[in-house]
Write a structure and sequence with these properties.
This protein is mainly α. Helix content is 81%, strand content 0%.
């Protein structure tokens, strides 16, 4: 009798993966701040950084698969990575407002640009989530939809990366001036974000040069 092999469930796989990174990030955060941390803040850091990580992976996979066939088998995870990451970042925005901004509204003005860019990035991620339905894809056409999603998702990711930089720069400066060995969690995920963006920039340059090379070849062939 032939055994039936169950198909992988991308949603299940991504959620299970996040259930390992959330507690890992939470514990790492507590271990590097060297102060008492409320449980809700501890868990929130796990969700926040996992959400950013998942969205970064969603963007990075396409670039990696362009050069290495090994990553092709992971491309079908991009939608789930993006949506679950968005939900975690949404939790970050909602809970963060409750525990940080409502008790101290002055944070809105002292961190105006960081908060404004973060909210803008979150709104763009919501747009990405809203147009991820098959009806929208059919209406726009797969090619136009992919292009739109790429522009929107990278814009949101850039805004989120700048948000982290503005919000956490004082923490990083304190770390550099201290004798603490392990870097802040925010600095680690920020560095990951830079890798994602730099690799995408490399792909852009590569495609531009490749297109130019093919254009020159086509012109020569016609002549």
């Amino acid at each position: 009798m032939t055994s039936l092999k169950s198909k992988p469930n991308p949603w299940k796989d991504i959620i299970l993966f996040s259930l390992t990174t959330i507690p890992l990030f939470s514990v790492y955060y507590v271990g590097t701040v060297y102060k008492s941390v409320p449980p809700i803040e501890m868990v929130l850091k796990g969700f926040t950084n996992t959400g950013y990580l998942l969205i970064g992976f969603s963007l990075l996979l396409g670039s990696l698969a362009k050069f290495w066939n090994f990553f092709d088998k992971f491309l079908h995870y991009r939608k789930q990575l993006g949506i679950v990451g968005f939900i975690y970042i949404l939790i970050h925005g909602f809970i963060g407002t409750i525990i940080y901004i409502l008790p101290n509204p002055a944070i809105l003005w002292t961190n105006y640009w960081a908060i404004a860019l973060g909210v803008s990035g979150l709104y763009i991620l919501f747009i990405c989530y809203a147009i991820s339905e098959i009806v929208v894809i059919q209406k726009l056409g797969p090619k136009n939809w992919r292009r739109l999603m790429r522009y929107l998702s990278y814009t949101a990711f850039i805004l989120g990366t700048i948000h982290i930089y503005l919000a956490k720069l004082p923490v990083w400066q304190n770390y550099i001036n201290s004798e603490i060995v392990f870097p802040p969690l925010s600095l680690i995920v920020f560095s990951f974000g830079l890798v994602v963006l730099l690799f995408r920039f490399y792909v852009f340059i590569y495609d531009a040069l490749h297109l130019g090379h093919n254009t020159v070849k086509a012109v020569i062939a016609k002549n």
